[in-house]
Amino acid sequence: MWNGGIMEYEFGIEGLDAALGPIPSGTNIMIIGPPMVGKSYFSRSFMFNGLTSNESGVYVSTKETGIKIQEWYANLGMDLSQFEERYGIVDCLSKTLRMESEKQPPNIVEVASAIDMTGISTSVNHFLEDFWRVKQIKKIRVVVESLSNLLMYSNLQTVFRFLHVFTARIKAMDAVGIYTVEEGMHDPATITTLKQLVQGVIEMKEEDNEKFLRVLGLKPAPTEWCGYQITDSKIEVSPPLSKYKQTFY
User: Fold this and answer.
1) Of the candidates 12, 76, 143, 244, which lies 20 to 30 Å from 45 by C-alpha distance?
2) Taking the mean position of all CA atoms in its chain, how far away is CA 172?
3) Omega into 146 within 30° of 0, i.e. cis?
4) How far apart are CA 164 and CA 95, in angstroms?
5) Exposed (0-12), middle (13-18) or buried (19+): which is 110, by Cβ within 10 Å?
6) Mean pLDDT, rounded, of the chain
7) At residue 46, does pLDDT exceed 80?
8) How far is CA 150 from the centre of its chain?
9) Quick one: which H or E segment has residue 152?
């Protein structure tokens, strides 16, 4: 979507898009919540929804191998093979799981480990340059899953420096970045530090077997908590997401 020459993105989630409107290009968003609330589903759906709209996507995985990511999509009927020219996966795990190198599909690039942030940056930049300059695909979605794994193997200062450059690259390319964080794994000061690098935060939680989310930073005031459900094919967000509190983020 274009608005007066400015690129805009959508989550591709009906209730969320209706309430928030378009996301400006160059936006970086953190998704934070405890395990099993759907952070992976949300971020992966975000990339896939872009691919179905003729955009491109880069997925940085520190939790699962690139092959597993492709299988996850295929098992839910979201076959990535139809978008072979427009997506890439940076695999931070496979090399740590085997002794000998195996040939990967062209859409998957391996780095040594989650510690290899130079390798991650180089691989992501390779995809960005290919999509943006070579293939002339100007709208790009980038997902990093997860920052918590990076913090497990490196200190906060190292991760912050990496993300400072990384998020600036997203902004310069008019892309949108999504970064997942495991709630409860980090002290509040760490989360506060990381939030300095993003423009928006999506908080997710579960109470009494029901899932809720709210969005901060993408509107002048945060949304109220609203319910959501995850099915095999989509995320459904319920009211009152369109109602905003009068406190500011």
Assistant:
1) 244
2) 17
3) yes
4) 26
5) buried
6) 90
7) yes
8) 14
9) helix 147-153
Q: In terms of Cα–Cα distance, which of 35, 88, 60, 9 is closest to 162? A: 60
3-state secondary structure of 169: helix
- 162, with CB counted inside 10 A (0-12, 13-18, 19+), is middle
Which is nearest to 218 in space by CA: 191, 178, 189? 178
Reading the block at residue 82, the tokens are 């139809």
| pLDDT tens track for 137-171 | 999 999 999 999 999 999 999 999 999 999 999 99
Q: Report how far residue 61's alpha carbon sits from residue 3's, in angstroms, rounded to the nearest whole number.
A: 32
3-state SS class at 164 = helix
Q: Are 222 and 244 in contact (CB under 8 A)?
A: yes
The single-letter code of the amino acid at 24 is P
- At 226-237, the pLDDT tens digits run 899 988 768 888
Six token digits for residue 129: 């340059």
* CB distance 38 to 204 below 8 Å: yes
Q: What is the pTM of this model?
A: 0.91
Which amino acid appears at position 123 of this protein?
S
Strand partners, 61: 91, 145
Q: Give the span between the Cα atoms of 83 and 57, in whole angstroms.
A: 10
- Write the single-letter amino acid at 38: G
Query: What is the Cα–Cα distance from 198 to 15, expressed in whole angstroms?
Result: 22
Torsion sign (Cα): 149, 152, 157, 162: negative
